[in-house]
């Protein structure tokens, strides 16, 4: 069973995925923005791992 906290983390993770895809799809993607979004996504993934246990 998922908690509300875990569901919120999943939603944020999916949102970051979409933002990364949007940025990568631009004619001149900003690699600094992409790197920041990926770091945030990784931190969320780590938090999701902890929350799942």
Structural class: mainly alpha
Largest sheet: none
Mean pLDDT: 93
Radius of gyration: 13 Å
Low-confidence stretches: none
Give me the number of helical elements.
Answer: 2
Keywords:
elongated, 53 residues, single chain, 83% helix
Q: Would you kindly provide a written description of the structure presented here, covering whatever features stand out?
A:
This protein has 53 residues and is mainly alpha-helical. Helices cover 83% and strands 0% of the residues. The chain has two helices and no strands. The chain has helices at 4-25, 31-52. Helix 1 packs antiparallel against helix 2 (31-52). The longest helix has 22 residues, at 4-25.
Give a topology summary.
Blueprint: H1 4-25, H2 31-52
Helix pairs in contact: 1-2
Give a quick summary of the entry.
It is built from two helices and no strands. The chain is mostly helical.
């Amino acid at each position: 069973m998922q908690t509300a906290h875990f569901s919120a983390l999943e939603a944020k993770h999916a949102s970051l995925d979409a933002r990364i895809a949007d940025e990568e799809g631009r004619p001149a993607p900003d690699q600094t923005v992409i790197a920041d979004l990926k770091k945030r996504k990784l931190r969320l993934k780590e938090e999701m791992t902890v929350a799942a246990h």
